[in-house]
Write a structure and sequence with these properties.
129 residues; alpha/beta; two-stranded parallel sheet; 4 helices; 5 strands; 42% helix
Length: 129
């Protein structure tokens, strides 16, 4: 039986998502990609500002829960902060390029099995919750 490393990257048609998918694909990963529809998102969640902060809090909690649940496997669960990256979400006002923002996600996705799990990371290392 062979092993294949697989990643699912949402919003992979542009920006950070695209850079993450391209970077992992270049490393030989099988990458499933998806794109978000802005009008549908708005209709389902309301203005992005209302949902953004609670969604980040929820993501942190889920990261820790999954890491605890999968602690006896070789699956690592971490959250990544790409920094203030120029994307359509912020009207391209960010100071980082999508390539720079994708770097931390690619680094976390390529950790060895004994790497950290249940954490929140940026380019400088661990970020306090």
């Amino acid at each position: 039986m062979s092993e294949q490393t697989i990643a699912l990257v949402t919003d992979a048609n542009k920006g950070i998502g695209y850079e993450i998918a391209a970077g992992l694909g270049a490393l030989g990963w099988r990458v499933g990609v998806g794109a978000r529809d802005e009008q549908r998102r708005e209709a389902e969640t309301g203005p992005i500002g209302v949902a953004y902060v609670p969604s980040k809090t929820f993501l942190n909690a889920v990261t820790v829960q999954y890491a605890k649940e999968l602690h006896d496997t070789n699956i690592l669960i971490n959250a990544a902060c790409p920094g203030y990256t120029a994307t359509d979400l912020n009207g391209f006002r960010g100071v980082r390029t999508p390539q720079q923002g994708a770097a931390i996600a690619i680094r976390l996705a390529t950790l060895t099995d004994d790497g950290p799990t249940g954490g929140f990371f940026d380019d400088a290392g661990t970020v306090s919750w």
